[in-house]
Amino acid sequence: MKIDIQRIARLMSWLADTHIHELEWGDDRTSLRLRRDPGQSLRQAPEPDRSAGPPARAADPEAQAIERIHVTASAVGRFLDRAPLQSQALVTPGSRVEPGDLVGLLQAGPILLPLRAEVAGIVAGHAVQAGEAVEYRQVIMSLEAVAAFAEGEEP
Amino acid sequence: MDGLGGGHLAHGKLFAPVAVPGGLEVSALGTTGLLLSAAGELCLPTQQRIWALAREVATWPGIGEAVPGMNNLMLCFSRPPENGHAWQGLVVNLQQAWQDIEPLSREGRVVELDVSYGGRGGPHLADVVTHTGLAVDEVVRLHSAPLYQVYALGSHPGYCYLGGMDPRIATPRRAAPILNLPGGAVSIGGVQTGVSASTGPSGWNTIGHTEMEFFDPCRQPPAVLQPGDQIRFRVREILA
Amino acid sequence: MIRWCSKLPLSSVQDLGRHGHLASGVGTSGAMDQLALMAGNLLLGNAPELAGIEIQMFPARCRFLQDGRFALTGADCQARLNGRLLPPWWLARARRGDVLEWFPPRIGARAYLCLPGGVDVPPVLGSRSTQLRGAFGGLDGRFLAVDDVVKAGRENDEGPADFGVEPPQSAMPQEQKGLPAIRVMPAAEYDAFSAAARATFWDSEWRLSPQSDRYGCRMTGPSIRLEQPLEIRSHGIVPGVIQIPPGGQPIIQLRDAQPSGGYPKFGAVIEADLWRLGQTPIGSRLRFVRVDYDQALQALDENRQWLDRLACHLAMYI
Question: Could you tell me which CATH number the domain at A60-145 has?
Answer without folding.
Answer: 2.40.50.100
